[in-house]
Design goal:
Radius of gyration: 22 Å
Distance between the termini: 43 Å
Order of helices and strands: HEHHEEEEEEEEEEEEE
Number of helices: 3
Oligomer: single chain
Number of strands: 14
Shape: globular
Helix content: 10-25%
Strand content: over 45%
Length: about 250
């Protein structure tokens, strides 16, 4: 009897392990050419195509000095699900590199909007932070990314957005995006996460705002939003030609 119970426990643990989610890692660090990859066989290529995959397809970064001589950096990017299955994007880390290839600083615990991305769809990440110990914005060179993601059976839970408007501000808030988000689901959404991608006339990413409506929205109801966070480099307001807003709901 004891042997049977032990065998049952072992089989159950094996089953749970096999069913666990498999995390994948991605980054934008340069990779050396690998001849073996070019010579990989068709079976390996087919397996890669069937695996979940997320890539950063657009990004922008800029550093500036504020009125009290503090150096800031803004980085935002667009994730695209280039695989054939839904993925949940986990945490992203941004690495701010200097002209000498050193790390000037990092930003961690950055999460995409939306978190779940369907095949062929996109999500935004954004962050602005102080570069401590840096006295000249020209010392900043670029941002690289590390992130993780995994296959999921969930959906993006994207909500309807309307009335989107870009408004030029003043010296304190150079630009903001307003609009309306509607709960098009059949249940209360406790929290709505929103991101607004700003693009120029050529489709280049200028920056991304993010925010939330955290008061809860009933099914079929709507609420306004006003996005101006995080701070963006100066001069962006006059370049904005199109705005793309994504909003998704959370239910606790």
């Amino acid at each position: 009897m004891k042997k049977s119970a032990l065998l049952l426990i072992v089989l159950l643990m094996t089953f749970l392990t096999a069913c666990g989610g498999v995390k994948n890692a991605g980054d934008t660090n340069q990779k050396a050419d690998n001849q073996s990859e070019e010579n990989s066989n068709k079976e390996e290529k087919a397996a890669e195509e069937a695996a979940p995959n997320v890539e950063i397809v657009k990004q922008t970064s800029g550093a500036w000095m504020d009125s009290i001589d503090t150096v800031w950096v803004h980085t935002s990017a667009v994730f695209e699900n280039t695989g054939d299955m839904p993925v949940a994007i986990g945490e992203t880390q941004m690495n701010f590199k200097g002209q000498d290839e050193s790390i000037l600083g990092t930003a961690t615990m950055i999460y995409s909007i939306p978190e779940v991305v369907m095949p062929g769809e996109t999500a935004y990440i954004t962050e602005s932070t102080i570069l401590d110990g840096i006295t000249d914005p020209a010392q900043f060179k670029e941002t690289t990314f590390n992130y993780n993601f995994e296959e999921t059976d969930e959906t993006s839970n994207l909500l309807e957005v309307s009335g989107v408007k870009g408004i030029k501000g003043d010296e304190y808030t150079q630009y903001k995006v307003t609009g309306i988000v509607k709960n098009t689901t059949e249940e209360l959404q406790d929290d709505i996460r929103i991101a607004a991608g700003l693009y120029d006339a050529e489709g280049n990413l200028l920056g991304v705002f993010s925010g939330s409506v955290d008061i809860g929205i009933n099914a079929g109801s709507e609420a306004g939003f006003d996005l101006s966070y995080p701070d963006l480099p100066e001069g962006i307001a006059d370049k904005v030609a199109t705005i793309d807003v994504k909003a998704y709901g959370w239910t606790w």
